[in-house]
């Protein structure tokens, strides 16, 4: 009897990935060796003589139950099925300025005055709301022209960030209407305080996804963090109305030294059924939650499911940067909203397509985990999403990794 990995299973030597279900099965040194020998043609009877028969039985039973393997009477070849969208990948290689996703920052200003937030260019958190200072800002006309250019370059997904995007509500809604007319998906990072019922009905109609930052479910902590109680009592009402309208939404919990004690209780207070994303203030910010450092560095929440479409991309590209750029309030173009050390150009002075002509973006798009100093050695490199912006803010080197418990 022989064992072969199913055609939809990918093995990196230490982990088996089911590319249909998205599940994974981790191997230790011994089980990895056993699976490798069995998949390479060793018959099960021989393997049982070389290794513990109990171990072999246990491994085979688990892999069969998870539908990772076939048991065959004779040695057979099981060809792997196509593991990426070859048309899209070839299109990128042929037309490297193809744009898939665009993040737009309409304003660096915010209606809240959180004690931890400043307008420096130093990234102290991953994606989300943050104040930024500008001496100039693009006009509504310029933004609408950029929106037209983005659709011509093939953008399929638009993200609005800030500052607080709702401070430019009229322009924001005009751009949403335009992008939705082109069947482009939209998401917004917001503190949620300016989301009235009329606005939410508009967003629901246009199928916009909301990423709402929540600071606390405790009124005392909320007051300390924001300097005000205004809006605190509206949080639960806003979330309830969002749910009633069936708006896709994520709750971003921004952890800091003030609200760190709520880590185990806030989900119950806000509603356990919501989709939560944990976000942390990193040590570059004085309100960094030291007591949550272990959770912040935990690699497990960063792991994503591998599938037939993303496997080859993850081998070759950085899935945070790839196909995406960020446009700041003043028209400056960067790799992402939190990485502003290098600008690709300034819109207004040039057209959007010109940003791609010098290929400065390529070193970011092509920065897969296998090109990162420490990550390349990690068994999770193929499936880990890490933030290059906060790492770069800490070390000034985009290829090193500090905030990970696997290092």
Give a verbal description of the structure.
With 407 residues, the protein is of the alpha/beta class. The chain has 2 domains: 2-72; 95-395, Aldolase class I (TIM Barrel). It contains 14 helices and 14 strands. It has helices spanning 29-39, 44-50, 53-65, 86-94, 140-152, 169-181, 197-205, 219-226, 234-244, 266-270, 293-297, 311-316, 362-365, 388-395, and strands spanning 2-5, 9-11, 15-18, 24-26, 69-72, 101-105, 157-161, 185-190, 209-214, 249-255, 276-280, 324-327, 332-334, 345-346. The strands form 3 sheets. Strands 11-10-9-8-7-6-12-13-14 form a 9-stranded mixed β-sheet, with helices on one face. A 3-stranded antiparallel β-sheet has the order 2-3-4, with no helix packed on it. Strands 1-5 form a two-stranded antiparallel sheet. Helix 5 (140-152) links the parallel strand 6 (101-105) and strand 7. Helix 2 (44-50) crosses helix 3. The two termini are 41 Å apart. The model has no long low-confidence stretch (mean pLDDT 91).
